[in-house]
Amino acid sequence: MTVYQSLLEKKKSGQKSFAILIDPDKTGKSSLHAVIDLALESGADYFFVGGSLVISNQLDEIVLEIKKQCNIPVVLFPGSPSQISRHADALLYLSLISGRNPELLIGQHVISAPFVKKSGLEIISTGYMVVDGGAPTTVSYISNATPIPSDKSDIALCTAMAGEMLGMKLIYMDAGSGAKKAISEEMISAVAKNIDVPLIVGGGIRDAEKAYLNCKAGADVIVVGNAIEKDILLIKEMAAAVQAKVVI
Ligand code: 1GP
């Protein structure tokens, strides 16, 4: 089963997913092993690997190490076309639909298309929406694009609807890694009610309660990176919150 098929199956059965974001710059081998052990123990669904800035040369090594240790699918979440490892299972092919920077909407895709196609990776077209996280984040700075204001749920829902109608298979709403303020449940719910494709939500999620509330609001996949880097044991709590039956 492809990664996208697994996402669709889970959505159909109302099952939520928990994705652990691994930033290759911040992850050494020993901490990676500890994260993998906890991910297996807690039933985490995916590893997302990438970041807005990847300075180190460790991407392949990290992906290979995860693949060696477990069967949890590895999904690339690239900040630039250089962040591609053919050893991963799938690639979120991100177009920054919340911004008006043509390079991140289509420009970089054109330049890297032959290379991406040759990688043999499962390519998942993803409408990427950056939402204001209360202060500039790396992604909001690097993308050179204005994030969606955090209280403008109508802009978010129209953007997501447009992305879906353009044929994108996923919508990823992100307040940016380490965001001061995570995306509100109100905005998540407005978007979730208006699209049929799976909805990924991340950025600034620091506790299990917020992970649970985001699922209740309609997120299908919760992505957490920063909080886990600070306290690895959060993996268990977060996974349990995401797996908890959401009562609506
Ligand atoms: C960032 O959505 C991810 O792009 C995860 O954010 O690192 O704040 O959890 P955090």
How would you portray this structure in words?
Helix 6 (153-165) packs parallel to helix 7 (185-194) and helix 8 (208-217) runs parallel beside helix 10. The radius of gyration is 16 Å and the shape is globular. It is built from 10 helices and 8 strands. The relative contact order is 0.16. It has one domain: TIM Barrel, CATH 3.20.20.390. The protein is of the alpha/beta class and 248 residues long. The site of SN-glycerol-1-phosphate has 14 residues, from strand 8 and helix 9. Sn-glycerol 1-phosphate binds at residues 172-178, 203-204, 225-226. This is Geranylgeranylglyceryl phosphate synthase. Its cofactor is Mg(2+). Prenyltransferase that catalyzes the transfer of the geranylgeranyl moiety of geranylgeranyl diphosphate (GGPP) to the C3 hydroxyl of sn-glycerol-1-phosphate (G1P).
Radius of gyration: 16 Å
Q: Mind telling me the CATH class? A: Alpha Beta
Indicate the proportion of strand residues: 15-25%
What ligands does this structure carry?
Answer: SN-glycerol-1-phosphate
Q: What proportion of the residues is helical, as a percent range?
A: 40-55%
How many H/I helical runs?
10
Q: By helix and strand content, what is the structural category? A: alpha/beta
Give the name of the CATH superfamily: FMN-linked oxidoreductases
Q: Oligomeric form of this entry?
A: single chain
Q: Per the principal axes of the C-alpha atoms, what is the gross shape?
A: globular
The count of domains is 1
What pattern of helices and strands is seen along the backbone?
Answer: HEHEHEEHEHHEHEHEHH
Q: Enter the CATH topology name.
A: TIM Barrel
Query: N-to-C terminal Cα separation, in Å?
Result: 30 Å
SS elements, strand count: 8
The main pleated sheet reads as:
8 strands, parallel, barrel
Q: Which strand order spans the largest sheet, edge to edge or round the barrel?
A: 1-2-3-4-5-6-7-8
Function: Prenyltransferase that catalyzes the transfer of the geranylgeranyl moiety of geranylgeranyl diphosphate (GGPP) to the C3 hydroxyl of sn-glycerol-1-phosphate (G1P).
Protein name: Geranylgeranylglyceryl phosphate synthase
Organism: Paraflavisolibacter caeni
Binding site for sn-glycerol 1-phosphate: 172-178, 203-204, 225-226
